[in-house]
Design a protein that fits this description.
Blueprint lengths: L1 E4 L1 H7 L4 H8 L3 H8 L7 H11 L3 H4 E4 L3
Antiparallel strand pairs: 1-2
Helix pairs in contact: 2-3
Amino acid sequence: MKLANRLKEIRSKNDLTQEELADAVEVTRQTIIAIEKGKFGPTVGLALALARVLKVSVEDLFWLVPDD
């Protein structure tokens, strides 16, 4: 299983740049880029922080999909 996400879509709807979101959750912009591209799965703590800042549930941001 791999982790899929809607981070870029929801971040854009909240009118936040990658840098602004990164600052809000205390990570680098590169971390946000990697998560949005599916190259990096966030820790539980980071997933919760992202959901809090974006005012959505963790399940709205992330879900598991079968490997191709």
